[in-house]
Design brief:
3 domains; five-stranded mixed β-sheet; Arc Repressor Mutant, subunit A; D-Maltodextrin-Binding Protein, domain 2; three-stranded antiparallel β-sheet; 12 strands; alpha/beta
């Protein structure tokens, strides 16, 4: 098999020539002789049987074929740089990628502030975020699909080797849309309790695949309407399809405007939320993120 003439070094040379506008300036940047730059380009042109540059006045301008090679080549250069960075991180205990599952009831504001600050300091670490519901988060942690859970509901599964820290959980409010057909009849506690069985519950699917799924909040009496995430649940309630428990911070604007109305019904006792990860996960990036989440909770 013929040797590929397009090397990382020659791609760096083409990149420097295009950015600096001349062979001489590219040579200066790369700390090479101008003749060495010219020779590298000429050799590549001969091996490929095409022209890569053309002269326009004093500038060296890429031909269409040259632009194609450089455009694709810059992606290769970026990939190799990221690869080198990640290899260094792995060798020093830093993970190249951290997968985080966030419970659907958790506030996103604090969560993304912590992630944003982390990425400013460690920009080469990739973050993969997924939404979890109830048992689905614990299952994802056990199976290694996520490295960290944020806002996972208790109880913490026993004998799994998890480190779990209690974190703040937002207030849940059972609500109905003001435009719902029965909303005007819910004028007192007695009417609400009488009509509750007629109100369809909007429920987010537990994201557990193999475990026993569960629900939380309102009773399971009456007809169900299942959705995939919290945004779908909110919009289903706004559309008058049914009722459901929603974190207050997600719907405060709708409550203030009277678009959503709180239901005066008895709530079950609160459930603790946890920040959780496997004890045997020694990644430095994970430790930084968990420490910052814990510090944020302590400051409240």
């Amino acid at each position: 098999m013929a040797r590929n003439p397009i090397s990382i070094e020659v791609l760096e040379t083409l990149d420097a020539i295009e950015r600096r506008g001349s062979f001489a300036k590219a040579a200066e940047e790369l700390n090479k002789a101008t003749s060495a730059i010219s020779y590298a380009v000429q050799k590549l042109e001969e091996q490929l049987g095409i022209s890569l540059f053309q002269r326009l006045g004093r500038r060296s301008v890429l031909t269409p074929a040259g632009r194609l090679i450089l455009a694709e080549g810059r992606e290769i250069l970026q990939t190799t740089r990221r690869l080198a960075d990640k290899a260094k991180e792995v060798a020093t205990g830093w993970e190249p990628r951290i997968s985080i599952g966030i419970e659907s009831l958790q506030s996103y504001v604090d969560f993304f502030q912590v992630i944003s600050a982390f990425l400013l300091e460690f920009p080469t670490v990739e973050i993969d975020i997924s939404e979890c519901v109830l048992n689905g988060g614990w299952e994802a942690l056990e199976q290694g699909r996520v490295d960290l859970l944020v806002g996972a509901p208790g109880p913490v599964p026993s004998l799994k080797g998890y480190r779990a820290v209690v974190i703040e959980r937002g207030e849940l409010v059972p609500v109905i849309a003001a435009n719902h057909a029965l909303a005007k009849q819910l004028d007192n506690k007695q009417n609400t309790e009488r009509l509750l069985a007629q109100l369809r519950r909007i429920v987010i699917h537990d994201t557990s695949f193999s475990g026993i799924t569960r629900s939380e909040g309102l009773s399971s009496d009456g007809q169900m309407f299942y959705v995939q995430n919290m945004d779908q649940k909110i919009h289903a309630i706004l559309a008058g399809i049914g009722i459901g428990n929603i974190p207050k911070h997600r719907i405060q604007g709708y409550l203030d405007k009277g678009i959503l109305l709180p239901l005066g019904i008895q709530q079950k006792g609160g459930v603790e939320s946890f920040l959780a990860w496997k004890i045997n996960n020694k990644g430095k990036g994970l430790k930084v993120i968990t420490d910052r989440f814990i510090a944020l909770q302590s400051s409240k």
